[in-house]
């Protein structure tokens, strides 16, 4: 199965990146924000009130961030369209699910990228199995973390395919994280 959309669709999300993630005051963010606290620029509909002026107001980091489709998946698939603004009891669970699914989607992106390598049929099969397992892991922290480690080991085992490929550096990021 490779049906998961790894492109963000903010219109179908409940502002989860603006809630779940932390950021530090820097050249990318004008303020400090702790994980699990809504950004003060979010409105009651989970929309950014400064969306068109984010760069101008010091929130370039928001523009650069990509949830890889984790936000809408958590909102629509896992929480069935409910959201933490209407039901505050969902705030913690949605944050947790978002960070977990984001990590899963990061793995899926790397696996999709690895598909361009001239893999042996054994490795291609292994890659497909990992993809399916990650896609089916939902927001289970234990499962996703175990599969993330497995993905990291698998990608490391592919070093010989891309030793001279700059893409190798990217795959290494996952291995060392
Ligand atoms: S500035 Fe806008 S996009 Fe950035 S975290 Fe706040 S609400 Fe979200």
Overview of this protein structure:
By secondary structure, this protein is an all-alpha fold. The protein has one domain (10-176). 49% of the residues lie in helices and 0% in strands. α4 runs antiparallel to α5. The radius of gyration is 18 Å and the shape is globular. The two termini are 26 Å apart.
Overall pLDDT, averaged?
A: 92
Element order, helices and strands? HHHHHHH
Task: State the share of residues found in helices, binned by percent.
Answer: 40-55%
Tell me about the biggest sheet?
none
Total of domains: 1
For the record, give the distance between the C-alpha atoms at the N and C termini, rounded to a whole number: 26 Å
Strand content: under 5%
The computed structural class is mainly alpha
Give the C-alpha Rg: 18 Å
Total helical segments: 7
Total strand segments: 0
Q: Tell me the overall shape.
A: globular
> Regions with pLDDT < 50 over 5+ consecutive residues?
none
Distinct small-molecule ligands in the complex: iron/sulfur cluster
Topology:
Layout: H1 16-20, H2 60-64, H3 70-78, H4 91-114, H5 121-136, H6 141-157, H7 167-176
Bound molecules: iron/sulfur cluster.
Summarize the structure.
The chain is mainly α. It is built from 7 helices and no strands.
For this entry, give a set of tags.
177 residues; mainly alpha; 7 helices; 0% strand; globular; binds iron/sulfur cluster
């Amino acid at each position: 199965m490779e049906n998961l959309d790894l492109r963000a669709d903010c219109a179908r999300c409940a502002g989860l990146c603006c809630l779940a993630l932390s950021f530090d005051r820097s050249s990318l963010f004008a303020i400090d924000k702790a994980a699990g606290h809504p950004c003060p620029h979010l409105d009651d509909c989970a929309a950014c009130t400064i969306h068109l002026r984010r760069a101008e107001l010091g929130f370039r980091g928001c523009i650069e961030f990509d949830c890889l489709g984790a936000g809408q998946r958590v909102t629509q698939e896992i929480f069935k369209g409910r959201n933490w603004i209407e039901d505050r009891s969902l705030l913690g669970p949605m944050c947790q699910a978002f960070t977990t699914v984001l990590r899963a989607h990061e793995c899926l992106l790397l696996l999709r990228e690895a598909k361009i390598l001239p893999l042996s049929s054994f490795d291609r099969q292994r890659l497909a199995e990992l993809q399916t397992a990650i896609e089916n892991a939902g927001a289970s922290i234990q499962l996703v973390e175990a599969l993330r480690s497995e993905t990291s080991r698998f990608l490391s085992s592919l070093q010989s395919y891309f030793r001279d490929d700059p893409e190798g550096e990217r795959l290494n990021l996952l291995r060392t994280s």
